[in-house]
Amino acid sequence: MPVQAFVVSPLSSNCYVLSPRDVPGAPAVLVDPGDDALDPVFQYIEEHRFQVQAVWCTHAHLDHVLGVDVVRRRYHVPAWVHAADVPLWDSLPSAAGSWLQRTVPSLAPPDHFWQDGDQVSVGEWTFTVWHTPGHSPGSVCLVGEDVAFTGDTLFAGTIGRTDLPLSNAAEMQRSLRRLHTLDDALVLYPGHMGSTTIGRERRVNPFFRM
User: Fold this and answer.
1) pLDDT, tens digit (0-9, with 9 covering 90-100), for 183-197
2) Are the C-beta atoms of residues 65 and 109 closer than 8 Å to each other?
3) pTM
């Protein structure tokens, strides 16, 4: 399954384009478009002639949703986020002012809300939505058969911050225990830094020892 990562935003967030096959006209989704300057992402999509179907957001911090409306306007697709993160979604202008010293417009409302246990597909690939609060109230992981997108819940060697407004350290621990049940071979694509596997994190991540 082609997964192409782009490091975007001054906060070095990962934006992913995923498609079940690398052929012209194949369906694709964008995960976490965290900047409104996405020209390399769009160039990649259009060079491959992918048909973008949706925007999937693992959570609503500005470095994961800043470009959502840019993508929606370009491809006329819906955006998904968990309802518990709507306060963060709605606070994008103030967050951008604080973190980026920029003025940005508000995002249009989300089109759909994740529910724990939902199944979503791109082509023949299906992902199950795991609600994994802790870094934010509405953080989710999108868990497929071979790969998962973990947002800012679990990284290579560390975990997401729990000292931010609306973060919760106790919920993060419950979410990590749930992720700990996944198969060692599962490849993880996190919201920052490089990919990893559940097995590697079991071995080396001091925050993932249960």
Assistant:
1) 999 999 999 999 999
2) no
3) 0.96
